[in-house]
Amino acid sequence: MIKVPHTYAIIFIVILIAAIGTYVIPAGKYDKEEVGGKQYVVDGSYHSVEQNPVGFFELFTSIPAGMQAGSQIIFYIFLLGGAFGIIKTTGAIDAGINAVVSKLKTKDKFLIPLIMIIFSILGFTTGTSEENIIFVPIGIGIAIALGYDAIVGTAMITLGAASGFIGGMLNPFTVGVAQGIAEIPIFSGFLFRSCVYVFILAAAIFYVMRYAAKVKADPKASVLYGEKIDRTVRTDDNKIPEFTWNRKLVLVILFGGIGVNMYGVIKQDWFLNELAASFMIIGFLAGIVGKLGVNNTFAAFVEGMKLVAFGALIVGFARTILVVMDNGAIIDSVVYGLSHVISQLPPVFGVIGMFIAQTFTNFFIPSGSGQAATTMPIMVPLADILGMPRQLAVLAFQYGDAISNSIIPTSAALMGYLGIAGIPYDKWVKFIWKLILIWMVIALIGLIIAFYIGVQ
């Protein structure tokens, strides 16, 4: 069986390719102009410059330089991770979701859509993915008790969260990071994303409910029929806490804080530093209200940062690609080459090409923030050259990054879901592939509409 290389190994290979490229790709530059505090590429200004190949030692000094270049985003992710670590440790999210799910056990008709809506809200506000693993066995237990199968139990948790993640309206780890790199207002385009999200979520709910109805009517319709499912893994080591008033108040603080962040972004021009500070305040307040105490609050803060270390540091590693290409004066040459090819096609194909490129990249770099750091520095100037709003480049990244997470084997969250559910990967693919195609069609239609209305 062929093993997919480690994500960092893939990025390092790309760094090496970029370094080799500085020897073979003609060096060139675009003139830049500043408009409203942002740097834009001047169309038609590309010109050749002296070749400046990156040497062996410079290749490695580019890595710490990449970390420095991406420091604002890196620390933003770390601090957000720490804040969510505190909130997670209070048990508020686990208890709140469990309370809602428990009340829905006897409401078969409303169970699937309501659970999927709840998890989708977590998806587009906090970007939850691996965090939902604890709820998969609960979902499976409820689904089987109601006459469904393990696929339904897993899908209503994971695809609900995935729908919100694709929508991404307030996701600080993907849309927030990408918009920061693109130098456009954080969480701008909220209304357009919300419209696409509604269609994404509706498609997922309909898909899961239709499958559930078939399984309930005829168990042989299950993709798991005849399969011996090992569900020995349970949440015994992760007991769901009681939904106390303190934990309810923590959730009020969390969602109230998100509302404050929206106000700050829209009315006060908040950016990454302000958002990171706000999330820290939310986290520390949650620690106080959740009665964690000083030591446990900061222990949870550090633990939360540990959990996002992979994604945070990969931003700096990926930023090294840009540093190498910039030092070798070839990044503008790459943009020029891409723009020359795409300009020969109908204009709308530019954003479709971006979406396809991001979907392909996601297989190898499933970290949303890492993929943003890798691809956005190229896609943003390409959008400028093609006369597209930078928001389109962010949308193409967002949908390309998020949709395939529910099917690619390199997704840590997906493999974690399937592992705890005991569902073979091939059976999941058999169940999910049609929905992935539906989601992609919705995303492409959304991107085409965004192109023609010039979404900002």
TrEMBL record:
User: What residue ranges are annotated as transmembrane?
Assistant: 7-25, 73-98, 110-127, 133-152, 159-178, 190-209, 249-266, 272-294, 306-325, 345-365, 403-423, 435-455
Q: Where is the signal peptide?
A: none
How is the protein disposed in the membrane? Answer: Multi-pass membrane protein
Q: Print the keywords alphabetically.
A: Cell membrane, Membrane, Transmembrane, Transmembrane helix
A Pfam family (short name) is: DcuC
Q: What is its main location?
A: membrane
Q: Which InterPro entries match?
A: C4_dicarb_anaerob_car-like (IPR018385), DASS-Related_Transporters (IPR051679)
Cell compartment(s), UniProt:
Cell membrane
PANTHER family in the record: BASIC AMINO ACID ANTIPORTER YFCC-RELATED (PTHR43652:SF2)
Q: What is this protein called?
A: YfcC family protein
Source organism per entry reads Lysinibacillus agricola
